[in-house]
C-alpha cells in the first residue's frame, strides 16, 4: 500500500510570484512519518484564455513558475537559491503585442483556424499527431529543458511527467526512491473548446505503470462552463468525448518480456484511474429562492442535493461506475478576488462581472479497485476565484511485476521516514484549514 496525493486548482489565468506559499495545500494533514509517495497536481487556466493563448503559440512561462513553486514546497530542504530553478530561464511575465491580455476570440480568428481544425478533426485512432495540436498522444513526452532540470534536481520529490495544453496543466511528482518503479509514461490530450477541438477546454491524461504490474491513469479536465439549464448536457458530452477520444500510443518494444503488462490504450483500460479538475458542474435551479436560502444557512449537505454532477451521475447520464468521496466543505467557486466572499453575495454594479451562484466546480473522482480515499478537502488560498481541492488516497498495488522493483518498492514503503530529510525539513501536519 502506498499513499497518493491528488490536487486540482483553477488559478484564474493568474501567474504566481515566487512568494506564493502553496506548502499548506500540498503538505498539511499528512504526518511527517508517512508523506505521500506520489503527487498528482492538475491546474486549469494557468494562462488567461484569450485569443492569443488559445490560437497562438503556447505560453510556458507560468508553467515553469508553478513547477518551481511545487518543487520548493515538496523539497523545502533544497529550496535555497543554489538549487532553485535557473534564474536565466525566459519566464513570460507580461503579454507581448502579439498576445494581448484582454483579446477575445473573434469570428475571423476562427476562420483563420479552419484549415488547422480540419486537420485535427480528421485524425484517426491509429495516428500519432504532433503534440502542438490539442489532440495528441505521445510516449514519455516530457523532454523540455525545465522538465529535464526538475527530474534531476536531487533527492526528495522529482518530476516524473508533465504536460500543458493551453491553460490546462498536469504534473506527476514521485519520491526519488520510487522513480525506478515508474515506467511506461505516456500522455494524451483532447481539445473540447472552440468548435469542439481547441484546447481552451478539454483534458490531459497521463498513463504510467507502477512496479511493472499496476497501470494508472490521471485525467485532468476543464469542462464546458455555464450555469443555465442545459449546460450540464455539454459537460456530460465533454466527458463522453474525452473517454472516447483519449488514446495512448501502444508500446512497441521488441525487447519487452512476453509476460509484461499490456499497455492500456484507453482511459478505462487502466487498473486505477483518477479524474480531477474544474468539471464546472453547478447547482440545479441556481436562481431559485430555496437555493439562496440554503446558501445563507451554509447548509452544504442539503445544497449538495442540487449538485448537477450528483444529479447526472445518479440518473446514469455521466460517470457510471466512478466514485467520489463525501463532500464536507463549502462550494469552491466563485469568490471575489483576494476575498472569502462569494461573488453571488456581493453587491455588483451593472457594469461589474457576472454573478455566479456558488458551486462545487472543482472535483476529484476515481475508478478501480484497491483505492481508498483517506481525505477529501479544499484549501483556503485566496489566489484565484476558485479554492483548491485535494484528496489523499491509500492505494494497493496489484500482485506480480518485476521482482527487483517489487522488492525495492516493498522496502521503500516499510521504511520509517521520520528521520528522513523531508521529515527533518518539516513536511507534515500543520495547523491550517486546508
Structural notes for this entry:
By secondary structure, the chain is α+β, with helices and mostly antiparallel strands. It has a single domain, classed as Endonuclease/exonuclease/phosphatase (Deoxyribonuclease I, Chain A, 4-Layer Sandwich), CATH 3.60.10.10. Helices cover 22% and strands 21% of the residues. The chain has 12 helices and 12 strands. The strands form 2 sheets. It has a 6-stranded mixed beta sheet with strand order 4-5-2-1-12-11. Strands 3-6-7-8-9-10 form a 6-stranded mixed beta sheet, with helices on one face. The longest helix is centred in the middle third of the chain and has 15 residues, at 231-245. It is globular, with a radius of gyration of 21 Å. It comes from Oryza sativa subsp. japonica. Belongs to the inositol polyphosphate 5-phosphatase family. InterPro entries: Endo/exonu/phosph_ase_sf (IPR036691), IP5P_plant (IPR045849), IPPc (IPR000300).
